[in-house]
Write a structure and sequence with these properties.
It holds the Pfam family SCO1-SenC. Keywords: Copper. InterPro entries: SCO1/SenC, Thioredoxin-like_sf, Thioredoxin_domain. This is SCO family protein. Helix content is 33%, strand content 23%. The chain has a single domain, classed as Glutaredoxin, CATH 3.40.30. It is α+β, with helices and mostly antiparallel strands. The N terminus is likely disordered. Strand 5, helix 3 and strand 6 form a beta-alpha-beta unit. The radius of gyration is 16 Å and the shape is globular. The protein contains five helices and ten strands; from the N terminus they run αββββαβαβαββββα.
């Protein structure tokens, strides 16, 4: 998010509280997590968006890998680059298992994040990262399905975007397992994702 710290803290607390309600039923498969166990929730069951590879994608297209999903925009000054840099660091920390992780960055600013801009942005962090985009209606539907908050904020002659900063992690069967907070470290992300990779 790009607004003031008080609002950022309020929204982060709101998102975390909401996700905690959805993730209150922990499974026996994931233990001592740093993030939020979201196994069995109805959040983010699927999407239909265009990738920076030029093809339309659903979540099922990435089965066989753990999938990390983050919503943001390319002109984000701090939260989004931090999230993608951390994702690249997580891949490094996972070692050879890093090849089993697919990072997806869904833009909440499709008016400015053209396919070319989005591809250049995500690939700067790691060539395997994929950007996903839709039109305004598709973006709104996807964000609603994922319980993601975003809003356009005027800044003089232009605008920026406020948005929530939860990272979603799916297991290799395409089931949502984790919600990871923006305040967590790469090491904490990697520890939780190792558990997800170990699931059948």
């Amino acid at each position: 998010m790009t607004s003031s710290m008080p609002r950022r803290g309020f929204l982060a607390a709101l998102i975390a509280a909401g996700l905690s309600l959805y993730g209150c039923s922990r499974t026996e498969e994931l233990k001592d997590l740093n993030g939020i166990d979201m196994s069995g929730t109805d959040i983010g069951r699927d999407f239909l968006l265009t990738g920076t590879d030029g093809r339309r994608h659903r979540l099922a297209d990435f089965k066989g890998k753990a999938v990390l999903v983050f919503f943001g925009f390319t002109q984000c000054p701090d939260v989004c680059p931090t999230a993608l840099f951390r994702a690249a660091e997580v891949k490094r920390l996972l070692g050879t298992d890093g090849d089993q992780l697919q990072v997806l960055f869904i833009t909440v600013d499709p008016e400015r994040d053209t396919p070319e801009v989005l591809k250049a942005y995500v690939s700067a962090f790691d060539p395997s990262f994929m950007g996903l985009y839709g039109d305004l209606d598709q973006t709104a539907k996807t964000a609603k399905d994922f319980k993601v908050y975003y809003a356009k904020v005027p800044t003089g002659a232009s605008y920026t975007m406020d948005h929530s900063a939860i990272t979603y992690v799916y297991d290799r069967s395409g089931r949502l397992r984790l919600g990871l907070r923006h305040t967590q470290t790469a090491e904490e992300y990697a520890a939780d994702i190792r558990q997800v990779l170990a699931l059948d």
